[in-house]
Amino acid sequence: MARIWDKYSSKADIIINNGSCYDFVKTVPDKSVTLVITSPPYNIGKKYEKKSSLNEYYLKQEQIIDECVRILADNGSICWQIGNFVENSEIVPLDIFLYPIFQKHNLKLRNRIIWRFGHGLHASKRFSGRYETILWFTKTDNYIFNLDAVRIPQKYPQKKYFKGNRIGELSCNPLGKNPSDIWDIPNVKNNHVEKTIHPCQFPIELVERLVLALTNENDFVFDPFLGVGSTSAAAVKNKRKGMGCEIIEEYYAVAVERTKLAMEGKLRTRPMNKPIYDPQNPKVNLEYEWEITSTQFALFNKKPVYRAGATK
C-alpha cells in the first residue's frame, strides 16, 4: 500500500496534513493541482469552525481561494460546494456572497450545480432547505472535461428516430445522458453506509463525479477542508492523487483510515447512480441498507443499523 504523506511532495500519491490549510497550501507549488474541490465551513458555529462576522469570514475564504487559484493548473478546475449562512431564520446564499472572490481572478464559471437531497433539518419559520450549490470554475478555456466518464442511464434507452434519414436508429447516446446541473444524491445521514463522526460530510458519490469528469489519472486533487477524507478517498479510488488538510485530530484520524480502506478497495461507499429511496417501491430502497465492516465499526464507534430481515 502506498505511503500517506503529511507534507507536500510531487512524488506522493496521497497527502493528508494534520494542520491548517492556510499554512499547508503555501508549501504547494504553482500550477501543481488539477482539481480543487471542497466544502468549506459555513460560519454557522459547527464544532469544526469558529463563528465570526460575515466580513471576517469573507476575508478568510478569500485568503484560501487566492492560494487555490495560485496552485491550480491552467487546465484545472475549482469546485466550491457551499450552502447558506443562517441566522434568525434569515439566510445568506454563500455561493453568491463568495462569487466576487473567484471573479477577481477572472475564473470562468462553467456551472452552478444544484445538489439536491431529501433529508435535513426541518424549518418552522421558512421552507426547509433541501439543496446546496457547487460553483464549478475553470482557470482557462482549455480545461479537462470527461463527460463520458460520468454519464447516467438514459430514461428511454431504446428510443429511436421515427422519421428522416436515421429512422430506426437509436436517438440517444448509448453511453448514457449528460447528468445536467441538478444532481439528486443523498446526503450522509445516520443510516447512510458512509456515515462517520463528522456532522456534515461529503457523500463520496458527489466528489467522485467531479473527480472523474474534471481530472485524468494521476492528477492531483486538493481539498483544503478535508474533514473525514471523502475527497482523498474518492481520488485514490479512481487512480488520482489525493491531497488535503484537516486540523481537528479526530477527523484527521478518520480521514487517514478511510483513505487507507479506499486504497485497499475495502471502503464501503454508496455506488454512483444508485437508485434513490422510493417509498412506493421497496425494491429500490437500497439506500437504507447499512452493511458495515468491523474496521469501520471500531473506527466510527457507531451502533450498526440492520435492515429489515437481516440477522443481527
Give the structure's gist in a few sentences.
With 312 residues, the protein is α/β, with parallel strands linked by helices. The protein is built from seven helices and eleven strands.
Explain the layout of strands and helices.
Elements (H helix, E strand, L loop, with lengths): L3 E2 L8 E4 L3 H4 L8 E6 L15 H18 E11 L1 E4 L2 E4 H11 L3 E9 L14 E8 L43 E3 L19 H11 L5 E4 L6 H8 L3 E5 L3 H15 L30 H7 L12
Parallel strand pairs: 1-2, 2-11, 3-4, 3-10, 7-9, 10-11
Antiparallel strand pairs: 4-8, 5-6, 7-8
CATH superfamily: Vaccinia Virus protein VP39
Q: Helical percent range?
A: 10-25%
How are the strands ordered across the major sheet? 1-2-11-10-3-4-8-7-9
Low-confidence stretches: 285-312
Mean pLDDT: 84
> What distance separates the N and C termini?
33 Å
Number of helices: 7
CATH topology: Rossmann fold
CATH class: Alpha Beta
Oligomer: single chain
Provide the CATH architecture.
3-Layer(aba) Sandwich
CA radius of gyration is 20 Å
User: Strand-and-helix sequence, N→C?
Assistant: EEHEHEEEHEEEHEHEHH
The total beta strand count reads 11
